[in-house]
Structure formats: structure tokens, C-alpha cells
Amino acid sequence: MAYVTWSLKTLERFCSDVFETFGFSKEDSDRISDVLLTADLYGIESHGMQRMVRYHKGIEKGQIHLDAKPEVLFETPVSAVVDGHSGMGQVISAFAMEKAIEKAKASGVGIVSVRNSNHYGIAGYYAQMASRQGLMGFSCTNSEAIMVPTFARQAMLGSNPIAIAAPADPYPFFFDASTTVVTRGKLEMYNKMGKPLPDGWALDETGAPCTEAPRVLSNIVGKNGGGIMPLGGSTETLGSHKGYGWGMVAELFSSILSLGVTSNECCTFPDKTGICHGFAAIDPAIFGDADAIKGHFSDYLQALRDAPKAEGAERIYTHGEKEVAAAADRRENGVPVNDGTMVELLDLCNYLKLDFSSYFPGYEPPAEFAGFAGNY
Amino acid sequence: MAYVTWSLKTLERFCSDVFETFGFSKEDSDRISDVLLTADLYGIESHGMQRMVRYHKGIEKGQIHLDAKPEVLFETPVSAVVDGHSGMGQVISAFAMEKAIEKAKASGVGIVSVRNSNHYGIAGYYAQMASRQGLMGFSCTNSEAIMVPTFARQAMLGSNPIAIAAPADPYPFFFDASTTVVTRGKLEMYNKMGKPLPDGWALDETGAPCTEAPRVLSNIVGKNGGGIMPLGGSTETLGSHKGYGWGMVAELFSSILSLGVTSNECCTFPDKTGICHGFAAIDPAIFGDADAIKGHFSDYLQALRDAPKAEGAERIYTHGEKEVAAAADRRENGVPVNDGTMVELLDLCNYLKLDFSSYFPGYEPPAEFAGFAGNY
What is the model's pTM? Predict the structure, then answer.
């Protein structure tokens, strides 16, 4: 698939305008745009602008409620439970993480569990809201069931990512990972390329390992069984029960503490997805000298980067380094957007009566996409 | 290897007596014994009585200080930093977890980071101290470097287990897992059996995958490079960076927040190991109705157990179920101890001038162990 490159400014203006036109406030539209474009800056294309079409569908179906306001149901100096009332995930999540940060600044720790939200973009965005303010940040979410527990043949957990961020020099620690071995987006990529899936990714409807992307994907859509393996594969030999356990931890902080919808029932309702999140912030100063802690962590991260490399490997990364490098490059040289997504954005402009050419002058979809216009 | 079975009571009396004879108080000896025998009850033999010989060595070498008392270096209503002064890991850890629990009961959350400790047994023991009191519990530790980061050829992190426990009916949720794909004990088991290691477990001194147990183990002992893969293997295809990331999270809560020794330097000192731990307790009541939360979690766990099984699978487990079943069986029918460990216990009795036959009447080591007596 071919890519076309646009400046971050252009994409920001476009994204914000789209969400304002849907009916969100300027502030909320900027937040949604920032979450999506942070993913694109970091090279996590699956969670960037290409998600706009899904949010559009969610709004049209009535699963995302434009006028919902997050409500605090219960609160202590170190905790809160928020009901998102099926609003936009990014708006609810920024509200909840800000609450966690505020509590961490006042009490040392803040933990916020959220129910009745929607897809919130990359988990790491919210963890990083904390680390940018010198705090440790934690974020997790459940989602439509896609992970098949060890010894099962039906998906019962979502991709359930967990992100943890902490201050360090010269890069913050930024760990953001699904608790499945891969996300559904990776399967879709292999499907588009017509390539067999790597061993250790997916299961068929009987619970047996399967490398046929079309079969696995159609089973997922039809809820016929099968799905994606937990981190660690499908048997205990490589630690399947561990990825499954981490998925449960995401569920615990999101759907369980908030008394919300667990992944096995997410996205089965006509008027909501029910998706739940968990957030936390911790002030390192509650352990003494926050600068000394940051320095100690930075030294260890440097020792990791400086460790002897495997034969043939050029570099050892610490978590978040790739994202920092990608973002620096894309701020300088522009953000690549693939033609498939560009066609979706064109459609979105037609639907919202926005002038596509005022954002993306001169762009013409390749001939292969002629049939798709208006049909996403 | 053959096993001989003893009642839990016998093993408790023996373990406590051994640690009292070393010079620990009755209370501390009972705690150490309880941690070790909980592992044996749960079927986690590698962390049970067979560890006694290693603790003996640690005391003899001067890495475990018999008379050390844990000291609180820094404290807030939600946190503490503890210096273990190289005492026995189980004693320091129970002290630290009790502090976390006390803070969680008063303030909703308690997080305690510990430096200068020693091997603490199974991570889950401490998480469960919290869940037994209706709280959510978290425990992690670093350890001698054994995990090779993605793209490296030298171990830089420990097996770095993380355990999380939470109240539920009829079984609590009890997730206790190393962040490596397996622990060193599993490699030693394959070595003893003369079997090749499964693919996806270990790396040789160049950082390439390796299934030769003797080679990997001698490299680990000689610190020649190589070691065990993170959960997710050695490449990003199966999520190696994710296991590596979870290992970093264990490091963050143990060695980083306490300004302690990171895994890459643990066990390199003559007079201490430097091992660090992290503990936390959270009162679910800070999210509203703790009983409703427990009920909601129990329902979800039941739904997981009731999900359709993979073809050929008999049962889907939730985390902690196997341990509950093993403990019930062993309390009823006795705890199996292998002959190798029995010979070590006999040696220990000779060293401490304890009457082995008063604990284990009639036990004779098999002929194959004749040469080992006195030489462990």
C-alpha cells in the first residue's frame, strides 16, 4: 500500500475539524485529535487516523453518545469510579487520568476505574500524561473479546493492553503492550498481504493453532470461536497462562473495580460498547528523592542500551525509544498516511460536508480505490 | 526421581527447627517455614524446601545476615521504603507487606519498596497476605540477572516475577508468574532429564536460540552470556519486548523506587545479594461496595471456567485454581519431597546437629545418593 505524507499541523487541523463537525466541543475535538495523532507520530498506525472511520460508525450506530459527560460515581482521596455514559473514549479517559494525576499530586497515589466508555486509542497516551508531569502513570482497558484463554476455544478477554510510563532521561520509560501476542490489526495486515500468519498468533474455531488469516478473521467477526492467543501462545510451555493472567489484570482494574461490562460482553449491546478502563498515577516523591529515583532509573536504562548485543543485532532498545525516534522524524518530515485511510478521510469529508481539498490539496485516490469511495 | 511423602505438620516442625537452630527467632522461623511450605503445598517445588540448601549457603557465605532487622527509611500514609540490611528475604518481605496492608486499611492504598533483601520465596505468598484480608495484593522482586533483553546477548534482568491476588469466590484470583518465559529451575529439570530444551526458552552466549540445557546453564553460572528469554521469546514477532517490559516493571517497583541494586548487579557482592522487592495493597472499598466488586469478579471468573473448551482440553483454569487443588490434596495426603532434597535435609541435620530420624523416621537415602551425603 502506498503512503502520502502530510505535516502534523495539517492532520491536527483536519482531525479537530472532523470531530467539531460531528458535534464535539473544540476542547474535546483537540483532545481526540491529539490521542489519534500521537499514535500516528509514534508509528502505531493501527490506532491513529485510520480509526476515524470506526469512530464515525460508532457515532452513527449510537454506541458513542456525542453529548455524554463523564460522571464521578464514587471518590476518595486516592480513588474514583467514573461512569462515561458511553461518551467518546478519549474524552472520558483524559478526564479520568487528570483525576488520577490530581489525586496523586495531593495524596501520592490516584487510581481511577471507568465504566461505560468507548475505544480510547493507545493506552500509553494516558500513562504518559502522568510521566510528563513527573509521575508514574498506568493505563489499561478492556475491549471486545478477542483473546482465547488457555485451554479454551472462545475469546473471553479483549486485547486488554496495559501501559506504564515513568520519568527518565533522556527518554521516559514508556511501555504500552496488548496482553495478547498481537492485536487484531496485525492479523488484518497479513490478511491484506495474503500471507500466512506466523505460528503462535491465532486459534481456529476448535481452539487449535491456525495460520489462515481469512479464517480466523471471519470467525472473529461471526463470533464462531477462536481468536488471538495470549502473550505466551496457546500452551503453558511458552507461558500462555501468563499473558492470560496479564489480560485478567487489565480486566480487574477496568471492568471489575468499576462494576462495568467485562470483555466477554463488550460490544454486544445496540446502544453502547460498555468498554471499561483503569488509570493510576503515583508520585515518586512518596518514596523519597524523586530526582535520585529518576537518575537511578536513567542509569539502569542506559546500562540496558549499552549491554552486549546479540550477533547481528544493531541496537538494544528500552521501552519508548522507538516512539521518541519516530515522533522526532515525523514532526520534522511529516506523517505518512496510507491511501486506504486517505480514501476513508475523503468519504468522511463528503459525509460531513467538509472541503477535503482544503486540507489535502492535490490528493487524488489511486484508481484501485475508485470502487471504495462512499462505501466504507 | 523418586518421591517420599510427609505430613505438612512434620515438615513445618522440621523447617521451623532448622531456622531456629540457625539462630532466627521462633516467630521468624515460623514465617520462613510458612513461605517455603506454601510453595510445596501449591506444587511449586522449586521454591519450597529444596531451597533450604541455598539459604544455608547464603548464611554461610555471609550474604544473609541472621541478626539484621528491617528498617523503614522513608514513609508516607500510602508508602514506605524499607532497607532489609541483608536479612532473610521472607522476614523482611512479610514485614514490608504487613506495612502495605496496614496503610491500605488506613488510607486505601499502601506501596512499599524494599532494598538490600535476599531471595523471598514465591512472590504470590505476599500478594495473598493481602487477599486473605479482603484486599488486592501485589508483590514483585528482582533477582540475579537471567533474562536477556530483546536484541541482547547478556542477561540484564532477573526472572523478576510479579504476583497479583484479589478476593473472589470460591477461589481467590492468584496470579504469580516470572516475566521470563520460564525460570532457571525448569532448565535444571530438563538438564537432569538429559532432554533438549523446548524452542523459545533459552539463548546461547551469542544471543542465538539454544536448546542445549548444559551449555545454557554453564554459561549462566560462568556469566559467559546468554540466559533465558523474556515471556514472548527472543524476537518481537511473539512479543519478546512485552516480557522484557514486564520485567522492567518489576525492577521499577523493587530496585528503582528503593534506590536499590538492579538485577544486572544483584549477587555480585561478597557480603550481600542486594535483591529488592516491591509490595502493594489496595482496599477495593475505595471503589465502592467491596462485596459487589468481589461478586462481579467471581461471576466473570466462573464464566471463564464455563467457557467452551479447546478440542481435547478438559478444563479451563482461572489463576490460583491449580494451587487451591494441590494444597487441598497435600494437606490431606501429605507433601511429596524428592530424594535429592531429602539427602540435602539429612546433610543439613548433620551440619546443625539436629536428629534427622526424629523428623523422618525410617528414611534411608537410595544407594544412588551415597556419594552426595555431606557434599551439597
Answer: 0.97
